[in-house]
Amino acid sequence: MKLSLATLTLTLTAALAACGKDKPAAPQQQGPQGPVSVGVVTVTAQPVTLTRELPGRTSALRVAEVRARVSGIVQKRLFTEGADVKAGQALFVIDPAPYQAALESTQAQVARAEAAVGSAQSLAERYGKLIQSNAISRQELEDAEARLKIAQADVAAARAAQKTARINLDYTTVTSPIAGRIGRAEVTEGAYVQQGAATLMATVQQLDRVYVDLTVSSADHARMRRAVETGALQTTAGQAKVTLVLEDGRVYAEPGTLQFADVSVDPTTGSIALRAIVPNPRGELLPGMFVRARIEEGTNPSAILIAQKAVSRDQSGRPTALVVGKDRKVELRQLVTDRSIGDSWLVTSGLTVGDQVIVDGLQRVRPGAPVTPTPAAASAGSKQADAAGSALGSTAGSAPAPAAGSAPAPAAGSAPAPGSAAGANPAAPTPPAPGPGPAPGSGSAASAAAAPINKQAVR
Question: Whole-model pTM?
């Protein structure tokens, strides 16, 4: 009995000693020592062709409304809607019967007037001979000459009426005034068209070239003119080139030219109207399409372009960039940007040629921090290594590392490792583990190990 109590005392003492041991502290990660390596781009000046993108709509080069010029019933339609037609091609036929009859009536009037002229002319010639022998009076001769002139005038009026009747007869065949693409027919066979109302019958539009109507603000127009006058922009001789971007984002293959700028400003919008002309050989551009036109403003001979990823915004929304100073310390620069060109910003103020702008490693530096600049292309690999290292560091820091020489912690549900509190007394029986349990070395493990010994002590 005394031996059992002594054994129990020793076992409990060993278990409590094992529980009281402090766990090994995790080693603290130390931050990087010395300057941080960053990728930089050296600022250079280069000539850049500046373009401006303006919204606009297309319109046909010429538009002809085909209208009725005589009244009557439409007998035939001689074209296919939506097809291309030629200038002078017949489109409609209006009932020509009444106009044919009018023409024949005027022809008869011309013949009657010409006959009257012959009679009057013979009488005037006869009286001219008789007046020499004083057989007739001077008054009779003058009357005969007047009747001849009246007859000649009647002939001229009859011929004019005949010409009018022929024109009206020709108008019964309605033709296209221009070459182009015809739209839908506004009238059908059997419809009555009127000359007085000028009934619209169809519309023909010339589409081999199209106009693009654009608008630009008067402020932008004035700023561009000042840039040209001061030499900041260099324009080329001739008309400006225009490139269209279609509604689906495609760039139109055929370039156009800028035709003119309006001489007045719209008082309601404060904008100036521009017009460009663009070839349309395949008929892709239709009137009324919304497009965006890129117009070449000129060339900036000493433009500074910086990658957009190197530019950030402060709390006020102003663009800023981090630059490596002369002492290899980070400096914060306030920038003035004009526009974006591709994936770069056009910087007009804040940077000079030769500045080293940080483009890689921006998250690891702050203004005033010492850095080691490397070319951005060479720092791409180090950027990936840094990302991998940061991911590895975060994973390693999630759990403390075991102390040197200590046994690795067992996984959940595994058997207790040898040398634990339960194995302190080899003579004591070890109960089977019923699934995942507490880690070895805990107080509950010691209690479980001591339970069978208590039973022996009681016995």
Answer: 0.59
